[in-house]
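Interim report, section 4.2 (structural modelling).
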Amino acid sequence: MERSVVFAGFGGQGLLFAGQVLAHAAVIDELEVLWIPSYGPEMRGGTASCTVIVGDEPIGSPVVDRVDVAVAMNPPSVAKFGRQVAPGGLLIANSSLVEEAYGRDDVEELQVPCTALAREAGDDRLVSLIALGALIARRPIVRPAAVRAAIRKVVAARQPDALRADLAAFAVGLRAGREPVRGRAAAPAPDAAR
Amino acid sequence: MARRLLQGNEAVLLGALRAGATYYAGYPISPSTEILMRASVHAADHPEFRFLQAEDEIASANAIIGASLAGAKSFTATSGPGFSLMQEAIGYAHKVGVPCVFVDVQRVGPATGMPTMPGQGDILQSRYGSSGDYTSLVFYPSSVVECYRYAVEAFNAAEESLSPVVLLTDAFIAHLNEVVDLDAIEVEVKERTLPALASGQTRLFTGVLVYADGEPATADADEYLRQYEEAKARRLTIAERYAFHEYGWNTEAETLLIAYGITRRICQPLASHFALWRPVRIWPVLERELREVAARHRNIVVVEGNDGQYAGVVERVLRRDVARVPLLGGRMSLEAVREGLARLGLLAPEAVGPAGAAR
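Predicted structure of the assembly:
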């Protein structure tokens, strides 16, 4: 088994963090894993993406032309990575910012209003953990318990106050992934970088 | 837990610490800056480890030379344009015979170039960057665990050869996170034999050619040759103990791929179609190993992130033409490699599926 996931959006959406959490969860589940960040020199607003490859055997190439799952948090990310999803794969789009379905009929497309859900949960930066929850609900590459343990491990070290909100956001994402919401969310994001 | 996710740059730092490094001087530059940052954190918690963020790369290079002469295993980390600034100091370290380690995390150049994109454009600079003749030892790992191991070996080679050793990596390997178990890595650490300053011995350190008594020898070609040949022979002899390389994949294949650093990893999905030879010791060139392996294959292709820097070396050593697949501008993808091989007529484009996805 080897599965690749790309998380993409604009800098500041916590995508690299979500990828790290997934990677740590894979270590906890005693799987092999790579995590590769890719970013422009800009810290905020520029594109940010990371690729996580999880497998039973040591991973050979860290570079993949196709991915099993793309988590795309804004329209440029959908445009860039939508075509990289392998047939039979999964595209998760942040429907709060992404208005139209990508529309490939050989790929499962899940629209989750991540930004709206993050706002409800109290912090825009939770978007990526919500998306991660949706991902694990649809493609259990690692156990949800492993993700929770990874969040505790990564977040507790840095910001103990954020831990509860992060775990809650992951739970929101899991629920959203099990019961997908199609179409645009009610609240558009006024400050979203496009 | 022993297995942990580790970043390439962090692995370099941990390898340096494992080797017994106690001095770091450097200047921040993408994609090497994590090494400087983690070195500073380590210094804050460990007073025996000294850290300096210098005003520039020239000062950094000279600082680690001074620290080494004072008795510390020392190192710095930079990227292409910073490495260029350090070259004069590197030449001095070669001339005087100073053990230290220069880490060059390569990015696309020249000059500021593409700071976050991986390149391999410093292959020749790592050997010929300074003025004059000298013999460089250069290593280039392909994975996070190798960043750790070959960081240790770089310090070992520095101590044994009494020279500045270069550890090359690239923006991709530097920021790659892989699962490693550092406790499981067995690697020997060579202790320092060079006496430190203030140890009771009188020594003269100077870049100018001098006799053993310190008098200038600036018109004596025989003295130059005596010192040069002795240093060269010592470096080459020591290098033999560090002949790290890899030969494998489909060794019966007609075509041999030569790849190193990140490109060796990118080519992995091609393993059933091609043989692979990978130098880890980039300099001195592993001439004997290369000739033995090359003789078994009809075609040779060098896949590298530059415009043929190592390919030219291979041609010189083998006295035969080799084909090239240059991966330029940070475009490090299997697709780019496949296109290059197809253009050479060595691979049907549809013969190898896309990398990744549900294997």
